[in-house]
Design goal:
about 190 residues, 5 strands, binds adenosine monophosphate, globular
């Protein structure tokens, strides 16, 4: 099994790279943002509560996303592995992820952090918002809050995997193909 965390600020390109990686390695893509947006589209109570926080650029509670991930991990535990995208976003989420994988006798193999400057990220998110219809991608104040939330609560999660020697930085401001090549180099190095 190969379990990868794609990490980095909003707009770093995690979703785009995850789509390419699932094809290359036959993995299951688990994006908590996508799972939450599916709840919003279905107008479930969970989705409606989450939307309020998402539109403010804040995180939804740890328990909510942890339970979403737990059920998906159980469902696909016999597959080739997972790409976690947008999860974990807090140290508690990272600890719970490690625990739930350990229970299944597996582990996170690598966390890949996409390095992208704030000004590039803001530009990319606004561009995406113009076509995706995502309300949290259309408002500069919300985007700035998401970046602040990332710096305040999420960036530190890197330390958790650095301590375990599982963290790698990748330059994320080239073309999609260039970034993909950097990422696959890191993943393929795990096998040697
Ligand atoms: P994303 O699509 O990953 O940018 O996520 C969109 C929004 O969903 C975030 O700004 C958060 O409000 C919420 N969200 C997604 N994943 C998580 C997570 N792991 N923990 C808390 N909130 C999350």
């Amino acid at each position: 099994m190969l379990n990868i965390i794609l990490f980095g600020p909003p707009g770093a390109g995690k979703g785009t790279q995850a789509e390419k990686l699932i094809e290359q390695y036959g993995l299951i893509h688990l994006s908590t943002g996508d799972l939450l947006r599916a709840e919003i589209a279905k107008q479930t109570p969970l989705g409606m509560e989450a939307k309020k926080l998402i539109d403010k650029g804040e995180l939804v509670p740890d328990e909510v996303v942890i339970e979403m991930i737990r059920s998906k991990v159980k469902e696909h535990i016999n597959g080739n592995g997972f790409i976690f995208d947008g999860f974990p976003r807090t140290t508690i989420q990272a600890q719970k992820l490690d625990e739930m994988l350990a229970k299944e006798g597996v582990d996170v193999d690598i966390m890949i952090s996409l390095q992208v400057d704030d000004n590039v990220v803001i530009e990319r998110i606004l561009k995406r918002g113009a076509v995706s219809g995502r309300t949290d991608d259309q408002n500069v104040e919300t985007i700035q809050n998401r970046l602040d939330t990332y710096n305040r609560q999420t960036a530190i999660v890197e330390e958790h995997y650095k301590e375990r020697n599982k963290h790698r930085h990748v330059f994320g401001m080239g073309t999609i193909e260039e970034t993909f090549n950097h990422i696959t180099k890191e993943i393929d190095a795990l096998k040697n």
